[in-house]
Amino acid sequence: MTLQTRIHASRRSPTVLVAGGAGFIGSHLCDALLQRGSMVICLDNLFTGTTDNIRPLLNHPNFRFIEHDVRDSIEIEGEIDRIYSLACPASPRHYQVDPVGTMKTCVLGSINLLELARQKGSRILQASTSEVYGDPEVHPQPESYLGNVNPVGPRACYDEGKRAAETLMFDYRRMHGTEIKVARIFNTYGPRMLENDGRVVSNFIVQALRGEPITIYGQGTQTRSFCFVDDLVRGLQLLMESPASVSGPCNLGNPHEVTIEAIAREVLACTESASPLRFEPLPKDDPRRRKPVIDAAEKILGWRPRVALKDGLQATIAYFALRLAGESPTLVP
Ligand code: NAD
Ligand code: UDP
């Protein structure tokens, strides 16, 4: 009996485990899954996540929070139909604090979640990243591009960890027939990013709102393609529920490519801030450009981003404005 049939036959709500569910993307995913009627188990060690992100959910009858580190083996009673593997710090500032710990999170965390998936017969989706392409020599990046990662640089703990996690997913599929999905997520932004996590969108917005200099690393000519979190969460769910034969890897990102200086100017315009631009050294191994080819997501999932950069920035700015004013914006599902 297939998983889908099993869920249907039992007529119960699917139980979904979101590892990393108290983080930025994970908490939005928990909201969306609860809205669809799923039972949601959020597992997180609160390294970069916070209970603030899931506070409105803590009393929800279909929501359960487990504080746990994915590097330790995971035992959960009952059936689990779906596992989203998002538990990993995503910002360079955070994943570089303890690089060996990051690598262990990617490798041991994936093995522990895959073992759980094997025991429970769950389908599992790995939150991989555009960082598997490193500093790309092919532009834009299709899934077939094998990447250009420096294996010994300061970003390698994350990039190589995520590459190893993809390997483990496909090895479990080959060895055990585990139903896997691999999403290669490109830069994502939105409410609930941490104001101090060092990522470009949160940095620029917080700096603009405080009237502090906007810190552009390098000349600001490097590019990224920014996807609003609601679009990304919709893509993740579509990939998870795609036919069992679809494993990916599948790029999920917004193909609208902008330079870092352009995003700084957009944030200044949206916030009407007079903050000056301040140019600082470019970190080592910082990728020069990044833009997804999303033909596979469009064709197989019928997915493409809907939220324009300006609109997504306005929503994110509104969130940070409340936070900086000392209010805690509760985004009730
Ligand atoms: P985030 O740091 O906000 O969320 C990660 C969550 O995982 C946090 O709640 C954190 O506490 C938890 N976590 C970290 N290590 C853990 C561990 N060992 N055990 C249990 N929980 C742990 O980051 P995010 O932006 O929400 O990213 C979520 C996932 O998506 C990550 O796997 C990340 O690599 C991936 N991703 C994100 C982006 C992006 O632009 N945000 C891009 C590509 C991939
Ligand atoms: N960046 C910047 N100023 C900042 C933070 C980041 O110019 O205050 C640059 C960074 O060097 C990179 C881009 O913005 O070129 C995106 O950085 P982020 O850390 O958000 O994501 P990643 O590099 O992992 O794609």
From TrEMBL:
Its EC number is 4.1.1.35. Keywords: Decarboxylase, Lyase, NAD. Signal peptide: none annotated. Residues 16-246 form the NAD-dependent epimerase/dehydratase domain. Gene3D superfamilies: NAD(P)-binding Rossmann-like Domain (3.40.50.720). It comes from the Bacteria. The keyword NAD applies. It holds the Pfam family Epimerase. Its cofactor is NAD(+). The keyword Lipoprotein does not apply. One of its GO terms (molecular function) is UDP-glucuronate decarboxylase activity. InterPro entries: Epimerase_deHydtase, NAD(P)-bd_dom_sf, UXS-like. PANTHER family: UDP-GLUCURONIC ACID DECARBOXYLASE 1, UDP-GLUCURONIC ACID DECARBOXYLASE-RELATED. This is UDP-glucuronate decarboxylase.
